[in-house]
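Worked example 2:
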Amino acid sequence: MIELQHIDFEYEEKKPILKDISLQLGANGANVIGFIGPNGTGKSTLFLNLVGMLKPTGGKILVDGQPIKYNKKGLNKLRQKIGIVFQNSDQQIFYSIVKDDVAFALHNLDIPEDEITKRVDRVLEELDISHLKEKPIQYLSGGQKKRVAIAGILVLQSEWLLLDEPTAGLDPDGKKRMVDLIKHLIANGQKIILSSHDMDFMYDVCDYFYILKQGQIVKSGEKEAVFLDEQLLLDSKLDQPWLVKLHQELHLPLYPNKEALFADRGLAQQLMLAQLDTNSEVG
């Protein structure tokens, strides 16, 4: 479990970015947690605090009941527990060949070479990028780079994976692949914390949410409780997912994802009958 106790953070004195944030990640059984909020509200700053790249100016962060230690040994231990993939994958890709970049962090931890090879091969296969193993990074697409960056974290076998804007810059196919990948990781027991401005994407993959506004948590809860609060979303400069809009405007059931909507044959029959009634009235 990750616990934040009264976390404050500021880059400049008297200009707070995070304000008195207290929460427990993983305490309620949620394995896919989403942080949503407008630009500049502190989501990325919060993520950097969670992985020890920034240190809170007030409060403390505990991982499995122990405060983060900000020395080299403590941070190495932390990053085996919590890994982050940045919005811009190029920020964490250091080698020119895929397999070398994925293995980078393991070499720093003095993992035996045969174990490194096994982990790299296993993760590349899991992410469906084994065919890119020997390929130069410069020839990869944006989506492929994101997968390589994720692979570089997964080889550490971290309990928690933080993804900051994972669909940013991806075309529709790349976005679909990212959604499928995240669902695959979730099914394999990976715990994930996400941040994104894409509300349809977040509604689809997350099961618990925190809304950040001006550096503070203004609401938390399961997807239904958060996204049905239309006024709060508007005040937070966020949009409702299209499935929620269908629910509220057309009085359809609130489906957890589009697959559930399309699988509802009863609904399809109702819509067809309604269309037939409309056509008969017009006739």
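The mean pLDDT is 89. The longest strand covers residues 2-12.
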